[in-house]
Amino acid sequence: MSNQLISISDAVIVRQENISTIVKAGPQSYQTNALSCQRCAEAGQQLLDEIERCGMSDDLDRRLAAYIEKTRKTVKVMNERRSPVTKLFDQVRSEFTMLENTIDPTKKDTVPYRITQYRNTYAAKKREEEERRRQAELAAQELIKAKESYRAAVEEDYRRSFNNLVTGCINELTNLNGSVTLENYPAVVDTLTGYLSKLPADWCPPSSVRLPYNVSPDEAKAIRNEVFQRILPSFEEQFVFEVDEYRTEILNKLPSKKVEMERIAAADAAEAARIKAELAQREAEEAARKEQERKKAEAEAKQKAELDKSNAEMAGLFQMAKAEQSYTPKSKVSKKIKVNDPAAFLGIVSLWWQREGCTLSIDELAKIFKKQVTFCEKLATKEDIFVESAALEYYDDVKAQ
Questions:
Q1: Over the stretch 34-55, which tens digit does the pLDDT of each residue have?
Q2: Do 297 and 346 lie in a common domain?
Q3: How far apart are the C-alpha atoms of 380 and 392, rounded to whole Å?
Q4: Domain count along the chain
Q5: Three-class SS of residue 170?
Q6: How far apart are CA 274 and CA 379, in angstroms?
Q7: To 10 degrees, what angle do helices 185-193 and 111-179 make?
Q8: Is 124 inside any structural domain?
Q9: DSSP for 333-399?
Q10: Which residue of 82, 133, 253, 288 has the lowest C-beta tally within 10 Å?
Q11: Cα 69 from Cα 311, distance rounded (Å)
Q12: What are phi and psi of 385, to 5 degrees?
């Protein structure tokens, strides 16, 4: 759009001859046209009264046709008479709107429009940058969560393997204690004496935890090593506490158990059964107590691991939340449609009809589809091609020529 404005001295509204035309010709043209309008309306009203009084006839129809023709000519003369004045008004309006359009941000090629386009482009660029930053931050958060979840799962897996090892050792010691007799007593003592007193130095079970998609094999290996080295001392301490102390406890009680077995062997059947039952009950109660203590310690360790996992995840998220937010211009994002195939308009109309069109009245729809309805009417008039639908009907619109 050109930025060249009309000078004030050349503007239609300030020219003296134009002001004179508006002042003098305007009222005169209006009065003359008002008189023509009045006379035409009065003549028409007389004809309407005659129609209502006498009805239509061939002679009256000819006079009506002549009146309509004269009315058309009168309207034309009235238009020509007021044209110089209204043309000036149109020019005045045009000059006002030209001033407005020159700085209207919505009008193409104006300076404000070009500035707006630069802002729109910049806003789109900043939005893309913000979206990339957001996606990167989201990926980083997901990686933190994945690593912490993997770390917790690996630790739980190691603890499960360790607990299975401890349970197996305790069961084996319990079976050894339960299998002792006077005949195999020396052999059982030797076996218990030589039994594992600490966690084997080469104990390192393989992890069965599934590797997250966003954690590399090297990162996963580093996490497993870190977790194993961190919890290994507690495993070594717990192994001694649960397995070695249980082994020592069994060894310390074996001499008294041997005495009990000797009493059983020397006693009669009834007394032997009683002593044997008491011994079995004490051992069962002791085994149950040990198992309860082991399960309690296992539950506490699991609860602590879950708490550590939750704290680590929250710490990671808070750290990401501290990231500095970049400036983003205020913008409004709207979806726009770019049609690549004419067939797409069928889908557009279909969706519009489902969401809005079906709720509108016939009059509202007639305004929206006026062009399409007119096309179908012309097609029916000229080529006898009709819309086949029970929801509409055709009728003859007869107009006098």
A1: 999 999 999 999 999 999 999 9
A2: no
A3: 13
A4: 3
A5: helix
A6: 114
A7: 150
A8: no
A9: -------SSTTHHHHHHHHHHHHTGGGS-HHHHHHHTHHHHHHHHHHHHHH------TT--------
A10: 288
A11: 93
A12: -105, 125
